[in-house]
């Protein structure tokens, strides 16, 4: 048996959460720094896994044990080139969130940090599980901590309880539909093994049920991504959630849905996926353009970024659709398909880094002013120059400026899509234009440019409640540095991460031929 | 069978009887002394543990097809001995359920009983007797015995429901329960008589044999008999449309009794229903399967929808437990006795019931603990519970998640199995309505979570949790989690209990 890297990555946060539960409530400092340190272990381990990972080596670091014999359920985890970046993204954002929250969370500290570590366990588990029951376990385990994070630490004016239960209900509707589909798949294929089921071809003898199962699973992932028209929980959840919760929500939770599409839905039902690709493509386009348009109409910074997530995750879906629309066709198109799928996976990673960063930056201004209302700001570039610089870079990465991360993945998605479904790609480009509009016009212009008005600023800024420097404090800068680093790195030299993803996605696609 | 062996087979029942009567007698002797009365609780608990040991001791004796429990009276008495009870997997499973339930209820009742009634010893004795009746009902193989044990259960339940003599609501609850109950028993008895008239037999096996050999001329009588028996047992389980008594009875009854009502009569009803349908009427599976599927849909949907409007937690949990019974019924409706796969419907029902036992009793234990402190069980009483007692709040959260069916809890395993059975039988509509219902149910469970976790309490005083309550809640919590995380032994228990019955009948 090899060293159980992945098992440790999953369960160290759980152990941390249990230990935190045993620390007395009033030892807040210890709880905060203990949980930051605990979260470093999965982070370091996930880097080690990435370093030791053999590109093109298929599933690696597999830990396997029979879990429930009568049910034929295994504890089986492993990573391939698609999950490696996702796990790293999760551990990185979790550590940064905990670090950031150590400075900003002031009430019910113990519960916050314990729940956050539980959440981390659930998310990582989803990215690593190779057994449907295990996958479902982790899928749902993450649900409850996020529900509580939104409900307990949300600001009262944002209706946190409403948002929390809405998030819970939306996700659960999809989950239970998915559960029924999983059961049906198991009953016909005789295994829960995510890697073996595609070989069997689940529900092949019953086309009607196969279609039902396809849409049931689609629903679960589409709600999580979220695709239009299942996206309405997202703006509410984001508005209400505390900063770190928003970061994880946008940075990781949405990726669970995307990852599910690639790991489960596409390999299980490639033929159906191809058949419905034009339709799903339309949903992707609507998500991209509608998300961008609605985003442009927002006056609440958090809501704006939330809708931009709908739009940006639409890019991911477009890449995925392009990759699946021409299955069973020969070589040259395979290249485009692989590019599209690579772009889609990279888009998830980039969106995690960039939007995670954006939400931290919303937190920066929110902690000082307790408002996200764009009209309340203006001319802050002179007052908070460092913040302006960091925000500008992150925002430009988000709109897809060449040289920063967002450009690479969007370019690849469109490069792939143009070769396969040109009409979709051409329409989709509108979303990029709109993206530039809402980011430059709404975020940059309304917050940073224009005249600085002293009255407006003193109306929202209350120095009594803010004990750090007016411009970005050191802990805020430290939080952002790793994210800025990856935005640049992926933007300039994406090869290391792309090689890992590409090997896995070509293997996946050629397996579906 | 010799008398000795006969007595050994009845060891759990005998233990409960003896302990119950000892409690009655001791209560007379030491009545009025608070400290000593407290010991009665522990004495009753000890008796339950003995019954548990007895159940485990006789576990290996069960046989597929059942070991008839009867002894030869000798030639002097003449005539044949008709075995009234059996010892098989199902009977043992329900004996286990019963003793676990009794242990939890007796431990969690201490404070409540002390505060609310002067007649403390008798309370435990009645609870023990009610448990005894469940054991008898789940082992009964003869219509007469079934009727008697169900009546025994009913009468003890009526007494327990109306236990708070000076409390109008408790009395009202008992009267309602009694009137509905009497009517339901009469209907069930009439069903039994039709069945006897048609087949000339009262033994379940004999009824099946008579129906199988085709010697029954009045075969059409079976269907009305089936409907009537289902009505009677549906009353015990609180299936829609025979559920009207339960919210009132649940709300009015002393809370430990409510906990009992939410598990005990349901368990007995299901045990009898399972045995009756599978042993006596396997030939009519097409009929009862469709009927049960319809009842299950009604029960789940109505239970959940009405629960949404409740503000009293006891009443809300009453509707919730109506809905839970609906999920369980899916297992029986989708029974696939010869299925080679993991779920055959019956093991799904048993596993679900096992998980439900700990989930619901755990939840009620928390309600009792809160009520002991606040004096009532309305939603505002749960405000800020996370502050007042993190242990109770976190446990309650897990119990509620288990009732919804979210992993890693036992409730999820139960749902996985019952929905699995439905999908396997291609009863997709039933499964879809089932999962939609579990989504609907989230909203009212959330209504308990919201004050508990999100809101501040007016009274921030910590809630003191007694050691026995801590034990009960902790144990239930551990079991709820264990059923999901270390599921194998529990699945095996349910499957083997089901197999011993199914193997012989199909």
Structure description:
The complex is a heterodimer of chains A (513) and B (506). Chain A has a domain at 284-513. Helix content of chain A is 76%, strand content 3%. Chain A has 21 helices and two strands. In chain A, strand 1 and strand 2 (73-79) form a beta hairpin. In chain A, helix 4 runs antiparallel to helix 5 (132-141). Chain B is mostly helical and 506 residues long. The model of chain B has no long low-confidence stretch (mean pLDDT 88). At the A-B interface, helix 5, helix 6 and helix 7 of A face helix 16, helix 17, helix 18 and helix 20 of B.
Key features?
heterodimer, A: 513 residues, mainly alpha, two-stranded antiparallel ribbon, 21 helices, 2 strands, 76% helix, 3% strand, B: 506 residues, 1% strand
Q: Could you provide a short overview of the structure?
A:
The complex is a heterodimer of chains A (513) and B (506). Chain A is mainly α and 513 residues long. Chain A has helices spanning 5-22, 28-52, 83-104, 109-128, 132-141, 143-153, 160-189, 197-200, 207-224, 233-240, 243-268, 270-296, 301-325, 331-369, 380-383, 385-399, 405-420, 422-448, 454-460, 474-492, 495-512, and strands spanning 60-68, 73-79.
């Amino acid at each position: 048996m090899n060293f159980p890297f992945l098992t440790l990555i999953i369960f160290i946060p759980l152990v941390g959460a249990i230990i935190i539960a045993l620390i007395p409530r009033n030892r807040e400092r210890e709880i905060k720094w203990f949980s930051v340190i605990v979260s470093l272990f999965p982070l370091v381990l996930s880097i080690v896994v990435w370093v030791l990972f053999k590109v093109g080596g298929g599933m690696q670091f597999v830990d396997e044990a029979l879990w429930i014999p009568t049910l034929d359920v295994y504890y089986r985890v492993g990573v391939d080139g698609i999950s490696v970046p996702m796990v790293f993204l999760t551990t990185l954002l979790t550590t940064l969130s905990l670090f950031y929250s150590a400075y900003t969370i002031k009430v019910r500290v113990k519960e916050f940090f314990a729940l956050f570590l539980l959440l981390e366990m659930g998310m990582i588990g989803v990215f690593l599980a190779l057994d449907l029951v295990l996958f479902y376990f982790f899928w749902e385990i993450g649900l409850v901590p996020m529900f509580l994070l939104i409900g307990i630490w949300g600001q009262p004016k944002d209706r946190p309880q409403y948002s929390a239960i809405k998030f819970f209900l939306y996700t659960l509707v999809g989950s239970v539909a998915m559960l029924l589909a999983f059961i049906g798949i198991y009953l016909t294929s005789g295994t829960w093994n995510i890697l073996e089921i595609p070989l069997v071809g689940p529900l092949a003898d019953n086309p009607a049920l196969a279609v039902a199962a396809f849409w049931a699973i689609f629903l679960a992932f589409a709600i999580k991504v979220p695709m239009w028209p299942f996206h309405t929980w997202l703006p509410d959840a984001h508005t209400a959630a505390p900063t770190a919760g928003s970061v994880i929500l946008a940075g990781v939770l949405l990726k669970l849905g995307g990852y599910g599409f690639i790991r489960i839905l596409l390999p299980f039902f490639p033929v159906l996926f191809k058949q419905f690709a034009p339709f799903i493509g339309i949903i992707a386009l609507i998500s991209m353009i509608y998300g961008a348009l609605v985003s442009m109409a927002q006056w609440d910074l958090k809501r704006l970024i939330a809708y931009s997530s709908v739009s940006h995750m639409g890019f991911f879906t477009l890449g995925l659709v392009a990759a699946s629309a021409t299955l069973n066709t020969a070589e040259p198109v395979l290249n485009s398909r692989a590019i599209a799928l690579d772009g889609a996976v990279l888009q998830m990673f980039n969106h995690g880094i960039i939007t995670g960063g954006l939400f931290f930056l919303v937190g920066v201004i929110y902690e000082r002013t307790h408002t996200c209302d764009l009209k309340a700001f203006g001319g802050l570039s002179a007052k908070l120059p460092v913040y302006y610089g960091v925000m500008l870079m992150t925002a430009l990465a988000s709109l897809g400026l060449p040289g920063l991360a967002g450009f690479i993945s969007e370019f690849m998605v469109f490069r792939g899509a143009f070769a396969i479904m040109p009409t979709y790609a051409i329409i989709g480009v509108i979303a990029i234009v709109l993206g530039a509009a809402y980011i430059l016009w709404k975020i940059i212009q309304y917050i940073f440019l224009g005249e600085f008005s002293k009255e407006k600023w003193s109306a929202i800024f209350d120095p009594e409640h803010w004990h750090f420097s007016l411009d970005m404090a050191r802990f805020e800068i430290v939080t952002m540095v790793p994210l800025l680093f990856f935005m640049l790195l992926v933007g300039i030299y994406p090869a290391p991460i792309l090689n890992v993803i590409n090997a896995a996605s070509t293997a996946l696609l050629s397996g579906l031929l | 069978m010799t008398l000795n062996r006969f007595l050994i087979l009845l060891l759990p029942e005998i233990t409960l009887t003896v302990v119950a009567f000892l409690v009655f007698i001791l209560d007379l002797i030491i009545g009025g002394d608070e400290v000593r009365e407290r010991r009665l609780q522990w004495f009753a608990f000890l008796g339950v543990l003995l019954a548990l040991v007895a159940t485990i001791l006789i576990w290996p004796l069960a046989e597929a097809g059942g070991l008839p429990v009867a002894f030869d009276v000798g030639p002097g008495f003449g005539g044949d001995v008709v075995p009234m009870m059996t010892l098989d997997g199902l009977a043992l499973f329900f004996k286990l359920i019963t003793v676990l339930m009794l242990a939890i209820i007796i431990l969690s009742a201490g404070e409540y009983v002390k505060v609310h009634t002067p007649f403390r010893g008798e309370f435990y004795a009645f609870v023990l007797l009610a448990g005894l009746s469940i054991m008898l009902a789940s082992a009964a193989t003869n219509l007469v015995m079934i009727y008697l044990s169900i009546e025994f259960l009913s009468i003890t339940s009526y007494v327990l429901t109306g236990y708070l003599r000076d409390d109008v609501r408790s009395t009202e609850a008992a009267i309602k329960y009694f009137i509905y109950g009497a009517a339901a028993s009469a209907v069930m008895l009439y069903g039994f008589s039709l069945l006897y008239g048609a087949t000339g037999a009262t033994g379940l096996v004999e009824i099946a044999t008579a129906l199988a050999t085709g010697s029954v001329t009045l075969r059409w009588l079976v269907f009305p008999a089936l409907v009537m028996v289902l009505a009677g047992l549906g009353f015990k389980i609180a299936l829609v449309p025979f559920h009207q008594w339960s919210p009132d009875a649940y709300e009015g009854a002393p809370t430990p009794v409510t906990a009992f009502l939410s598990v005990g009569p349901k368990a007995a009803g299901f045990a009898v229903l399972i045995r009756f349908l599978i042993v006596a009427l396997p030939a009519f599976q097409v009929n009862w399967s469709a009927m049960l599927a319809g009842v299950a849909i009604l029960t789940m949907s109505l239970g959940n929808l009405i629960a949404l409007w409740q503000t009293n937690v006891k009443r809300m949990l009453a509707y919730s437990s109506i809905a839970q019974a609906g999920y369980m019924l899916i297992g029986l409706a989708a029974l696939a006795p010869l299925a080679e796969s993991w779920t055959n419907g019956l093991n799904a029902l048993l596993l679900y019931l096992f998980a439900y036992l700990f989930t619901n009793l755990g939840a009620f234990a928390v309600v009792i603990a809160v009520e002991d402190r606040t004096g009532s069980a309305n939603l505002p009483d749960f405000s800020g519970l996370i502050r007042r007692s993190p242990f109770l709040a976190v446990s309650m959260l897990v119990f509620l998640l288990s009732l919804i069916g979210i992993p890693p809890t036992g409730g999820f395993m139960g749902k996985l199995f019952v929905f699995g059975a439905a999908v396997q039988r291609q009863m997709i509509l039933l499964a879809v309505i089932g999962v939609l219902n579990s989504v609907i149910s989230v909203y009212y469970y959330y209504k308990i979570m919201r004050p508990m976790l999100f809101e501040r309490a007016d009274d921030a005083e910590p809630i003191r949790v007694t050691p026995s309550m801590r034990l009960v809640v902790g144990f239930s919590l551990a079991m709820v989690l264990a059923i999901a995380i270390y599921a194998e032994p529990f699945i095996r228990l349910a499957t083997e209990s089901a197999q011993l019955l199914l193997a012989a009948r199909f």
